[in-house]
Write the structure tokens for this entry.
Amino acid sequence: MASINVKAKRIKYILYFFLLILGVVIGIAIRHYYSIPLSETLNIVDVATLVTTIFIAVYIPSVLDRQMKIRSDKKDLIADRIDELQAFYRKINMLVQQEANTSKDKLTIVNTLDIVGHRLETIITLLSYFEVKDSYSKEIKEIKSLCSEYHDLLYTKGIENDDVLVYTKEVREKEELLYNKIDRASGLLVFRISDAA
């Protein structure tokens, strides 16, 4: 990987050198074959303007655009992970809101609860590597608290028979409320991340 980056830099510098030589050759050819009236003195302001213009023309596309693209990709990655978290919670919500769940549904709920716990930790880790001026600790704390409450509610409140898992109406209502709070809090986090400078 490092050798590829070194080769790419070498190629870039060779290209820049080639373009400089090409510009000098074209300048000499124009001066030699065409009689264009040129000033014999150099104006320092014009030279500084030319150098600045060339620098900006090279710097903006090669550095700033790449940095903006990387930053945009980081935002998109975090937003995608939050969308996946919301989809997992929606899946659990749909299963819990049924009157009775089969043993397969029970396993799906338990496994998905484990997955969302790990997915939340992944989002927190990604946010810690996402360099921004703003801190998302308040939002993360709220989401973690809601997710923990949601996890505890569904792990402990089910009535199990051999083949079915039954949640009471009270538990289903509380689960629906918690699900909506998690969805709202995670959606607001996505908006805050998309607004990050």
